[in-house]
């Protein structure tokens, strides 16, 4: 397994892009491209990453790069892979990077179709938990209680009232070769999972927690710390589903969720009752996570 120090010096997602300081999505792309290397084709839908990486005439990806429509990531990546196979270039990595809006919502139909067909692609959702590029609207990946412009805090609403959609479990239901979650705060775990995905054939899905300083209303310098707190509170599970076996990769410390929530402006309105509801949800989620290890063993 490659460590952070052993990653190549060469960047295939380069500096000079226009991401916000501390952007989790930019960290995801840089680490992933060091693992995938030059023999890679990248696809992007509409997203923050498209805008900050590929503002014409410049592009931060130093590999072939394509962009079509918001909802088409998985099907376009599948088409690219099939075309490369016809050209005798079956060894090329085809990677789609998409946000949570373009994955959990508008892109879910194409994602499910590609998974059901077991298309030979790698799909990475960088999960910043809202439609950040278009002004911080809620997605189905936005957590309970979070402020967004479409889940405002006022007399009627007090943030999002639904809990986060579990897309990894939806992908597991397709019985694909590989599903994993990762966090920018645990790069060694992320690198290991990227290497596994690269080595496998068929449909591979990774979902990476990628904090957004603008949408999460927190200091840019705190993004990695917040990503770590999400794991240690149990809010974000590090797991993988590999060839039918489910594994929890890290048992958290189960720090109080309020430490994580109060560090972000998007949660500053939460009441003690709201925080207790989230703490109870974490307990329930972990009971289900551990039960899955027995179901898929």
Word description of this protein:
This protein has 297 residues and is of the alpha/beta class. It has a single domain, classed as Thiamin diphosphate (ThDP)-binding fold, Pyr/PP domains (Rossmann fold, 3-Layer(aba) Sandwich), CATH 3.40.50. 37% of the residues lie in helices and 14% in strands. The protein has an 8-stranded mixed beta sheet, with helices on both faces. Strand 7 and strand 8 form a beta hairpin.
Give descriptors for this structure.
297 residues, alpha/beta, Rossmann fold, eight-stranded mixed β-sheet
Cross-sheet strand order for the largest sheet: 2-1-3-4-6-5-7-8
How many helix segments? 11
Rounded mean pLDDT is: 96
Q: What is the CA-CA span between the terminal residues?
A: 23 Å
How many strand segments?
8
Could you provide a short overview of the structure?
The protein has 297 residues and is an alpha/beta fold.
How does the SSE layout of this entry go?
Elements: H1 24-36, E1 40-44, H2 48-53, E2 65-67, H3 73-86, E3 93-99, H4 101-105, H5 108-116, E4 122-127, H6 167-172, E5 178-183, H7 187-199, E6 204-209, H8 213-216, H9 223-232, E7 239-242, E8 245-248, H10 257-261, H11 272-295
Helix pairs in contact: 1-7, 3-5
């Amino acid at each position: 397994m490659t460590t952070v120090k052993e990653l190549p010096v060469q960047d295939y997602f380069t500096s000079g892009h226009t991401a916000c300081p501390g952007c989790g999505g930019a960290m995801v792309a840089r680490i992933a491209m060091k693992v995938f290397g030059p023999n890679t084709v990248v696809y992007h839908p509409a997203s923050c990453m498209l805008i900050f990486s590929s503002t014409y005439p410049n592009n931060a990806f130093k590999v072939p790069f394509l962009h079509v429509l918001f909802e088409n990531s998985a099907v376009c990546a599948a088409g690219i892979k099939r075309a490369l196979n016809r050209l005798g270039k079956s060894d090329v990595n085809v990677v789609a990077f998409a946000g949570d809006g373009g994955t959990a919502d508008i892109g879910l139909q194409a994602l499910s179709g590609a998974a059901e067909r077991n298309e030979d692609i790698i799909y990475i959702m960088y999960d910043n938990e809202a439609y950040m590029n278009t002004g911080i609207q809620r997605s189905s990946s936005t957590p309970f209680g979070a402020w967004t412009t479409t889940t405002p805090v006022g007399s009627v609403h007090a943030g999002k009232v639904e809990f986060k959609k579990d897309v990894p479990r939806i992908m597991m239901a397709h019985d694909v070769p590989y599903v994993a979650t990762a966090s920018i705060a645990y790069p060694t775990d992320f690198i290991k999972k990227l290497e596994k995905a690269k080595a496998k054939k068929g449909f591979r899905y990774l979902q990476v927690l990628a904090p957004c300083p603008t949408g999460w209303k927190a200091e840019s310098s705190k993004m990695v710390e917040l990503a770590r707190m999400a794991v240690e509170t149990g809010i974000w599970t590090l797991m993988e589903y590999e060839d039918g076996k489910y594994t929890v990769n890290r048992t958290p410390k189960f720090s109080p969720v309020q430490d994580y929530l109060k560090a972000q402006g998007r949660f500053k309105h939460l009441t003690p009752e709201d925080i207790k509801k989230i703490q109870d949800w974490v307990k329930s989620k972990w009971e289900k996570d551990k039960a899955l290890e027995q179901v898929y063993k």
